[in-house]
Specification:
The structure is a single chain. It is built from three helices and six strands, in the order αββαβββαβ. The protein is 13% helix and 13% strand. It is of the alpha/beta class and 151 residues long. A three-stranded parallel beta sheet has the order 1-3-5. A three-stranded parallel beta sheet has the order 2-4-6. It has a domain of 73 residues: Ribosomal Protein L15, Chain: K, domain 2.
């Protein structure tokens, strides 16, 4: 078997296509207007047509009615129910770090809100630190003898 040398390598037949040269006269097969046709916007230099353009016709995205409202000041608040807080040990401080360690939240955006769904077990004393508390949650926390701290 003959050993192949690096300088003997060459591409296979018809694998490399010759670049098509435009605007070099009639003999080249693409002279005169260089494949751009006669006049018009696309024949001019820099004559690009923007996306969604339909000539003189009203573009579709302008015809379709616009609906709704996007509030740019919206706050993304993570909500946690009181019933989820029973997994913590007694006399522990419940804050973002501890909630993340227990897997109750993955990331915080604009704050944490404690909701009043469920009950806190009465034998545990917590110090709960959150950005927001519902009225129902505050009542249940005080009734259970825990401390609610607004951060």
């Amino acid at each position: 078997m003959k050993q192949l040398k690096l300088f003997e390598l060459k591409p296979s037949a018809n694998s490399r296509k010759k670049k098509f040269i435009r605007g070099r006269g009639h003999g080249s097969g693409n002279g005169k207007t260089s494949g751009r046709g006669h006049k018009g916007q696309k024949a001019r230099s820099g004559g690009k047509i923007r996306l969604g353009s339909e000539g003189g016709q009203m573009p579709l995205f302008r015809k379709v009615p616009k609906r709704g409202f996007k509030n740019i000041n919206k706050k993304n608040i993570v909500a946690i129910n009181l019933s989820h807080l029973n997994i913590f040990e007694e006399n522990s401080v419940i804050d973002f770090e501890n909630l993340k360690n227990k897997g109750l939240i993955s990331k915080i955006r604009d704050g944490i809100k404690i909701l009043g769904n469920g009950e806190l077990k009465l034998n545990k004393n917590f110090k709960i630190k959150a950005n927001y508390f519902s009225k129902n949650a505050l009542n249940k926390i005080k009734k259970a003898g825990c401390i609610a701290d607004v951060v």
